[in-house]
């Protein structure tokens, strides 16, 4: 039986790249969830995966709540059947940007905290709960959250992103202990700066141009990682050779210096 990759945020960016690569290198069918904001890209992902002889089912829906996870897991079960998910990749980006106590229109509101934490941290747990409850995990499944160096950053509008990634790291460690005895692996992949729709939203206007200029200077290789490089490493993690990784925050940043990045991007205090 061909196994499946479940990818949240599958139409663009990292999720789309992972869908293509794991279909090719691990022979996995793809069940993806996306919000429908990039329909042309979703069609291209489907075309690329099916061209490799794999099935691709993309579900247009929200994925960042407990109810969304339950409904999505039911849909996945009807398509793939029990014990079918070999790889789960949480690649959701739906953060609110702003400051914690600015006392102006940049100050974050309670609803923005809830939405951001649900989408970028809590939903990882919601989906794992839904997969376990429906016996969807294949033997020795890999469950993978994604993070980035912003967790160590003082980027002025990124407080919630930083907080959610920190929470996600804690969830990963605890889930690894809970699911490890069952043979599953739960990890967090922390990779360096890469140009995606989400990063361009975080760093808009002049900051986006500064991002493109600064990032290569704070990475020893002198360039940013590519989406394909991240996706190929995810495919490695999905294989047997990476079985011992568990409960880990895996550094794939290329030794990116976040403190130097912050200093160069914002010479004055945020």
Topology:
Layout: E1 4-8, H1 13-25, E2 29-34, H2 39-51, E3 56-60, H3 66-80, E4 85-90, H4 110-133, E5 137-147, H5 159-179, E6 185-191, H6 197-202, H7 206-214, H8 227-237, E7 249-252, H9 258-265
Parallel strand pairs: 1-2, 1-4, 2-3, 4-5, 5-6, 6-7
How does this model look, in words?
This protein has 270 residues and is of the alpha/beta class. It has a single domain (4-195, 226-255), classed as Rossmann fold (3-Layer(aba) Sandwich). 44% of the residues lie in helices and 16% in strands. The chain contains nine helices and seven strands, in the order βαβαβαβαβαβαααβα. The protein has helices at 13-25, 39-51, 66-80, 110-133, 159-179, 197-202, 206-214, 227-237, 258-265; strands spanning 4-8, 29-34, 56-60, 85-90, 137-147, 185-191, 249-252. The protein has a seven-stranded parallel sheet with strand order 3-2-1-4-5-6-7, with helices on both faces. Strand 4, helix 4 and strand 5 (137-147) form a beta-alpha-beta unit. Helix 1 (13-25) packs parallel to helix 2 (39-51), helix 1 packs across helix 8 (227-237) and helix 3 packs parallel to helix 4 (110-133). The longest helix has 24 residues, at 110-133. The mean pLDDT is 90.
